Every structure is written in structure tokens, then in C-alpha cells.
Amino acid sequence: METLIPTINRLQEVFLTVGAEIIQLPQIVVVGSQSSGKSSVLESLVGRDFLPRGSGIVTRRPLVLQLINVPPLQERLKIENGNGVKQNAQNSFPGVKAEEWGTFLHCKNQIFTDFQEICREIEAETERSSGSNKGISPEPIHLKIFSPKVLNLTLVDLPGITKVPVGDQPEDIEAQVQGMILSFISNPNSLILAVSPANSDLATSDALKLAREVDPDGRRTLLVISKLDLMDAGTDALEVLLGRVIPVRLGIIGVVNRSQHDINTQKSLEDSMRDEQAFLQRHYPSLASRAGSRYLAKTLSRLLMHHIRDCLPELKTRVTVLSAQYQARLNSYGQPVEDHSATLLQIVTKFASDYCNTIEGTARHIQTSELCGGARICYIFHETFGRTLQSIDPLGGLTELDILTAIRNATGPRPALFVPEVSFELLVKRQIKRLEEPSLRCVELVHEELQRIIQHCSSFSTQELLRFPKLHDSIVEVVTGLLRKRLPIANEMVHNLVAIELAYVNTKHPDFTDAAQVSASVNSQQAEASDGGKRWKNDKVGEEKAPATGFGSPSKGQAINLLDTAVPVSRKLSAKEQRDCEVIQRLIKCYFLIVRKSIQDSVPKTVMHFLVNFVKEHLQSELVGQLYKQPLLQELLIESQDTAQQRIEVAQMLEALKKANNIISEIRETHLW
Ligand code: GDP
Ligand code: MG
Q1: Candidates 3.30.420.270, 3.40.50.300, 3.30.70.920, 3.30.1370.10; correct CATH number of 27-307?
Q2: How far is the CA of 349 from the centre of ligand 2 (A)?
């Protein structure tokens, strides 16, 4: 069993470097009511007098006591005088020329070889944080005891359970102490040493009650019956020790500690243990080999090792999980920059390809919450832009009067027989112009999306970029600049697309000629058939209804309003005017649809060619051209302070975890329990 001690020590060493809150060390916690003998039990386990003991509240802060087995001084001196090759936890205090010594966490460099002094330091440190008048504090004192006489154990001495506040103690002292005790024993990695004096009824034991609360199955509770020597004459604890009163799974061990009188007369621990053994032989001969302080120490050591063994698989998993987490974090920080130009090229290339992939839809980080990249551009083309065009009324904003005025203006002074073509051209151009605004808006939307992809790529895909804030900003700047440069070009092209349509109204367009002819012929037929009466009648109506406007009867109206060139607000149209209007409307509609179709088709193509594809193709070279400049490299690749520091810390942690993992594996392999 002792062969495991060095391994446990190593394990503890590693755990300390890894941090106690990450890996919980199995430890033994002493619980019991005030003056039940907790400190005395601990002291006999250590084999030295050093804990403040006595009646009333003495232990007022938790004391975390780590016992560390060291070779006797002679042996240590030999190792040190030898080549000093053998390095392990046991000779980590090479300078100490004492057989046994202690150190406190709160005064790290001080070595206490006088155990009386340790006792005084505990008292002083207790007073430092909890006052001199019986106050308590949950802040533990950490003490390490190095000795050849101890087994490797970590023990926690706690203030006893009290009921009535005394001195400076607060009203809720009972609850406070219970909370403190529970915080230690609820740690599933602790063994609970419930101390109950033999001279009080076990059924009233507060220690057992608290232990049951956190360990109902009794898997980690050991019962210590103290003060066997103080039982009333004629009674003994045999029934209790045999577990017949209250069974305790891990066992019940009776002990006899030193009485206050023994302490006062400075009875040595050796004498006390001898007397204890003699007492047990006398009163409990059948149990003598399974009772007493020595047996308690061995039992505890064994339980602790079993406990460690039981914890190993879980510890291993935790170390593995933590390692993976830290490894991932380390990877995310990347390697420290050695070759600046290569790193810059690599990051720029990755950014450029991420950018293109997001447009192409081949990116690895596909978003599911909203459309982005190429998909959004597609949406802009076909939904936003397409729908807007579709919703434009070919004759929108064009009243019959507008048409009529245009016809009349086009015919000049002569009354025309046929609908003048000039007026059609004039009017259809006016409609075509209306396609420009939504087309330019389409360019703008795509431009915005391309801008958004920059953010998307720099935060999502190119994790590395976060390391180099300057480079990140520069990349954003360059891409934004490139987009800004291309925007007016794309706009110009789209503007031209509409301008081209306006430049020449192609009435010989194959889709148009048929429609034009049909509507023209239909109209002339209609005109012939319905001429005469209808026209006369309509003229009459017009004449009657609109004399004041001067637009109805050509002879009278013109005579009256010779100088009035304003377009009349409304009036009834003549049949011919009506027909002319209809013809023009039909032609406009027909031609407009042709142009709209072509614009709807060519604007996306233009945007793709002049903006999207251009940026895609030139992004990489633009980035390299602007950023890959020798004097810039160093500056661009300055890591953020945090990253550099975090990388070091994470690497150290990872190293410690690896060591812990090795030790765990070692224990599992070499010791088949
Ligand atoms: P704690 O408050 O639980 O830490 O108890 P202490 O260890 O301070 O002991 C309280 C008092 O009981 C001290 O005066 C001890 O000497 C005494 N005491 C503890 N254990 C025994 C024992 O087994 N026998 C006798 N006779 N006295 C004991
Ligand atoms: Mg005590």
C-alpha cells in the first residue's frame, strides 16, 4: 500500500498546478459537535501536537491540513549529498534540516520546525480574520505537514457544531457553522470523519446527521467514537463499535485521545498511543486490532486510495475533456507569427476565398437564420428587383390627355389623318425612363450585400483575423474601397442600359411589328365602320359639354381661346381622339413590355459582370497589392495583446493537463488494485 504514496503525491502536485477547483482532491473532513475531540483525532493522525485544542470553541476557521510523507532526515541528506539526480515531491524542500516541519500558504516561505509555533501561528491567523472573541470565519487556513511519520492524507479540521452563540458569535452561529461544514462535506470527493464522543448518545450525534445529509448511502462516512475512556462506570461502547446501534458502512473506530489533563501535563503522543492500546486491550480485547488511532490512520489511508481509484476514471475524463477544450482554444489562437509574409498571404488568400465561397454558396459556414451572400443576391435580382419591375404599370402616370396633347403637339399645324409616330416615341420613352430608378436601386442593394459579406467573412470564417485587429481593419478597408470603386461603374452601365433603350425605339422589333400592325389595322377598320353618326354625335356632346374649355369644337374653341395653350383639365374625348388614344396606349404597352423584359434580364447580368464578378476576380490581387508591402507586414500582423497572453496561459494549462493525464494513466497501469 505504501508504494502508492509517491504516486498520490505526484497526483496531488499536478492537481495543485491544475487548480483545486478544476480537479477535486479526495480529502478527509472531520465533523462533530464542539469539543467532541475532532482536533485531538486529527492530531493523533499526524502524530504531533500542533493543533489548538481545549474546551469551548477553539477551532474557528477551517484548517486544510495536507500531510506529506517524507523520508527521514538521514535519508534525505544522503539523497541531497548524492548526485541530486532523484527528483520527486519528497525532496522539494532540500534545505530543511529537520525531521518534520510545516508550512502555511499564507506565509509561503517560512518553514516551521517547532510545532508549538505552528500551533501559535494557527491561533494568530485565526484571530487575524475572525477576531479574538470566539467569532468564526469560513476562510480556510492551509497548512502542510512534512514528516516521515505520516501517511499521505489531506485533512480538514472544522469548527464544531454549536447551538448557542457566545462572545462575538452572531445569532445564526448554528446555521453558519452548518453551512461551512456542508460546503466541505458536500464535495463528493471528500471522506467524512464523523466524530462522536462515546459518552453521549449516538442517536443524538450531529456529526452523523450532517454526514447523512450529503452522503445518505454512507459511502464516504467513517464514524469515530472518541472518549472511550470517559464512559460512565458500568457502560461500554461495544454495541456501538460493532455497529449494532447504528450501522456505518465504512466502519466504526473507537479511539482514546489525550484528556485535558494529559495535555496540560504534556503527555507525549507516543505514551498516549501506548496507553490507548493498553486501554483497548483491557476493555475491548476482541476489537483491539480494529480500533485505536493507528488503525484509524491506516483505514483512512486505505479509504483515500480507494477513493482516488474510484475517482480516476472520472478524473481522466475530465482531464481529457479539459485538454480538448484547451487544445481547441490554443488552435483558435493560431501559432505565433514567424514568417510574416507567408502568414499575411495565407490570411488574405483565405479571406478572399471565403468571400468568393460565400457568394458562390460553397462556404463552409452556411447560415441558416437568414439568406446571405450569393443567395441573397439572387433574391435581390429575382424577388426584389423582378417584382418591382413587374409592378410598374406600362401606362402608369400617363393620362389620355397627356397622350392627346402629345399627338397634337406632334402633328403641328396640320390636322393629321393618322396617329403620328413621333408622339408614340415621345410617350414610350417617358415610360421607359421609369425603369431606371429601380434598376439603380438593384445595384445599390447588391452593393450593400457585398459589403455585408465582408463582415460575415471576417467574423465567421476567418477566425484568424480576430487575432490581428489591424489586418482585419485593413482588409475591410481594401474590400470596401474596391466595392466603392466599382459602384459608379456598375451604376453607369445600368444607366446606359436604359439610355440605350431610349436612344432608339425599334419599331421593327420582331415582337413589336405584329402587334403594331394588328392594332393599327383594327383601329382603321373600326374607324371606318363607326364614322359618321357616332362622330357627329360625339362632336356634339363635346361641343355642348366643353365650350368653356375651348377644346371641344375646333372652330369655335380655337377662335375663343386663341392664346390659351394650357392643357385643359378634363373633357370628353371625341371618337377619333378616343381611338387614337387607344392605339397609342396599345403600342406603348406592347413596346414597354419588350423593353422591360430586356432590362429585367440585362440589369442582373450587368451587376454581375461589372460588380460581383469583378470584385470576386480582383479581390485577392487587390488585397495583396495593397497590403503585401514589406514595411506594412510587421504592423499589420501585430497580435492583440490578449491573444498573445492567452496563448501562453492556455499552453501552460495544456502542459499541466497532459502531465496529469500521464500520471493518471501511470497509476491505472502500474497498480492493479
Ligand atoms: P474539538 O472541539 O472537537 O476539536 O475537540 P478537541 O480536540 O479540542 O477536544 C476537546 C477536549 O476533549 C480537549 O480537552 C481534549 O483533551 C478532550 N478529549 C478529546 N478526546 C478525548 C478522549 O478520547 N478522552 C479524553 N479523556 N478526553 C478527550
Ligand atoms: Mg477543534
Answers
A1: 3.40.50.300
A2: 68
